[in-house]
Structure formats: structure tokens, C-alpha cells
Amino acid sequence: MTSDRLFRLIIRLYPAAYRTAHEAETVSTARESLASQGRVGATRELADLTVHALRERTRLTATSAVGAVAAVAAPLAAGSAVALSLVFTAFAEWTKRRAGNSQPAHGFGPFATLGAIPYLIWILVFLAAVFGRGAAARRLTGIAMAASVALVPLAHLTHMDRPRLYVLGSLVLFGMIVLAAPIDPLGRSPLDRRALTVCTLVMTGILSGISLEYGPLWYWGNDTIDAIGALMPGALGFLLLVSVLCMRLNRRLPFAVIVVMFPWGVFCYGTPGRPSLFFGGVVCAAALAGFVLLLPKIDVDHRRDRPTQSGPVPPTDAG
Amino acid sequence: MASKMMQEPTLLLLTALADEPRHGYALIKEVDTISSGRVRLRTGTLYAALARLQQQGWVQVTGEEVVDGRHRRYYALTKDGVDALVGETARLRATVQEANRRLRLRGVTA
User: Fold this and answer.
1) What are phi and psi for residue A108, nearest 5 degrees?
2) CB nearest to B25's CB, from A32, A41, A306
3) Backbone phi, then psi, for A185, in 5-degree steps?
């Protein structure tokens, strides 16, 4: 495929409304920018344009309500993923292996399963964000998602054990929420270190407490996840209530809580036949009802770019 | 305005618009020049930032024209945008003055 065909294909990714308003301008700027760069620079330019087009198409931009919700949900999602990774690494991967009673027994080095790979990458995401490396944290999030997906064929090929799909699936969904959050040029990073640290500590504390009360988390025949599932509707109700009360501080918070509840629902109720499957239906119904009820409360100011005057202005020396 | 966090590319973008309206590619070049080649804005990132700055009311479109078959749309700072840039500049100036004062105490001149 020639670079020109690829370029036109990328432009086609933009939604029709955006193309009507901005295509000529975007194409002119991108062509000039591409012409002044080498092969690597041009590849980055096209990748950046692709991301922008996809964000415009999905409305996951810093100027949209959906993007604003994703930005608030990102630290909650990342904190959840890091907390699950910490707790599973400590209570499942490491402890079970040391106890010698892992079931089944095809471990990965010092760990019980291949799950240690995405867990350790999520812990690196946390460290990168805490040390202010937002871009690195986002890249590592993508790597953690890819690793979670790759574990399925990898486990098949190597005959090593892997975590069950409800764990990997929830981690992938948490990662998708983090990457969906747009970077606001006038705001904090979606992986803001303070918000992420608070979320991670709270989630890790809750999960550790449940593990100590009901027994360590494990992938097979484990009552602890059922206990988390039974607590989930109450936790959702409590969090929604708190977030609604805090809507003056951030009116997107209830939506963010609802968004993050979906991967938690996959984690708690992702295995068919669990006795707590009923609660899964309750959580999903409550989440959808809350979303619909709160939808009118959220709005983002859309003062977009209609020219205040038409006609040419004096060209600059740069143009 | 002052409560908004301004990341470096945003500050550079506002700085590039401080003297006169500019179109997209001119902004990319200006930011590159002002930052001595450190920050290279990509097209997608540029238009995402401009949309956010327009939504904030700091930047507005002032005109359009076609030059050699290339569509140009010109962007300029609004009064709020100028105020925001003045505020951020004052904040940075105060930080630099304080850093210089403390360095002088160590006998170092920046």
C-alpha cells in the first residue's frame, strides 16, 4: 500500500461530520508536516493522525462528555487493575507456589501460572505513573493488555497454566478504560499519581481484607471471589451514592463508577454457573439504570470552531 | 483561568499565537522553533489541543483562505487566552526569579 493510499484511508477514519468541517485543513497541514519529515517521523505522524481519527470517531476526545467520563474512570480502572495484580501476585501466584499445592501444577518459574507476566507489567504501570512517567505508563498499559491476551495462546503452546479468562478479561477491560481516556492539554494526566495511588491503596486494602477473611484468592474452586461478588451490589450502591453526593466536585464521577463496575462484574461473575450470577444481573441492571438516570446531568460545553470572521488574513512568515 | 493546569505543549501553542494568528502547519513550525526542536507537535495532537483550547474559550478561528491549493484556517488568542498566557508567564517568571535568587546565594549565576 502506498503512503498516499494509507493517508487517504486514515482520513476516511474520521467521522463524516468532522471531515465536512475539517478535512481540507487537516489534509493540508498533515501533508506539509509529512513532507518535512523522514521515514520514522512520517510513520509517527500517520500513527498520531490515526489515533486522532479514531478518537473523533468514538468521541473519546478531551472536548466530549464520553472522553471526560473516561478520564475520570482511568485512575479507578488502573487502580483496580494494579490492586488485582498485587493481590493475585501475593496471594495466588507466589503463596500457592510456595505452599506447593497449586492446582494444576505447571507453573511459570517461581510463580503458579503465567499470570505473573501481566500482573508485573501492571505493577510497572503503577510505578511509572507514580514517578510522573505518564506516557510510559500508557505504553505499559497497552503492553499489559497485549500480554493478557497473548497468555491464552502462549499457555496452549507452552503447556503452562494461566489465570482463568474472567481474570484476564477484566484486566483487558480495565486497560481499555485507561487507554480510552484522552489526554487533556489543560488538565491532569489520566494516570494522575495522587488519584492512582489513592485508588490502588483503597482497592488493595479491600481485596487484602477480603482475602484474609475468606481465604487467599485463587483461580479454581475459590469462595473468595464469590464473596467479592456477593459484596459487589452493596459496594456499587454505596459508591454510586457517594459519587452522586460528590457530583458538585465532579459531575462525571457517578458515570466513572458505573464504567469501572463492568470489568469488576466480569471479574466477579465471569464464570457461568456461579451461585452469584444473580448478583451479576443485579449489578448490570443497576449500572444501566444509573447511567440512564444520570445522563441528563452530564454535559460538556461544545463551543467549537466556527470562524468569527471569514475571508483571508495576512499570511505569516511561517506559512 | 489560573486553576487550569497548563502542560508545556499547550504553553508553547499559546506562545506561538501570542503575536499574530497562525494556521495549523505554521503553528507546528513555530512550536518547533520556540522549543529549539524539543517539542514537535503532530497534526492529530495539534488539532486535538486546538479543539480543547477553543472549548475553553482561549483560542478562536479568525479566518480561512486557500493558498496554492492548501486550505488554511487561522487561529488566534482570545482575550481570555491572552489573560491565561499572561498569568502563566507571570507564574513562570516568579519561579525563575526565585531560582536565580537562591542560586546566587550559592554563588552560582544561571
Assistant:
1) -120, 100
2) A32
3) -65, -15
Cell matching residue A192: 494522575
Q: Examine residue B45 and state whether it is found in any structural domain, yes or no.
A: yes
Between residues B74 and B5, which one has the greater pLDDT? B74
List, for residues A169-202, the tens digit of each pLDDT value.
999 999 999 999 998 888 778 888 888 999 999 9
CA atoms of A205 and A73, how far apart (whole Å): 19
To the nearest whole number, what is the mean pLDDT of chain A?
A: 81
CA dist., res. A44 & res. A38, Å (int): 10
d(CA A48, CA B92): 30
Q: Classify the phi-psi angles of A146: left when phi > 0, otherwise alpha if psi is within -120 to 50, otherwise beta.
A: alpha
**Cβ within 8 Å of A, B 71-100:** 71-74
pLDDT over threshold 50, residue A30:
yes
Retrieve residue B18's grid coordinates.
501570542
Check A304 against B57: CB less than 8 A apart.
no
Reported as a single tens digit per residue, the pLDDT across A71-96 is: 999 999 999 999 999 988 888 787 66
pLDDT at B76 over 80: yes
Place of cell 478518537: A55
- A266 versus A2: the higher-pLDDT residue is A266
Range of the structural domain that residue B55 is part of:
8-104
| Residue indicated by cell numbers 493481590 | A87
Q: What are phi and psi of B68, to 5 degrees?
A: 50, 40
In what helix (H) or strand (E) does residue B67 lie, and over which residues does it extend? strand B59-67
CATH number at residue B44: 1.10.10.10
φ/ψ of B71, rounded to 5, equals -80, 125
Distance from CA of A204 to the nearest CA of B (A): 30
CB A76 within 8 A of CB A199: yes
pLDDT at residue A148 in the model: 94
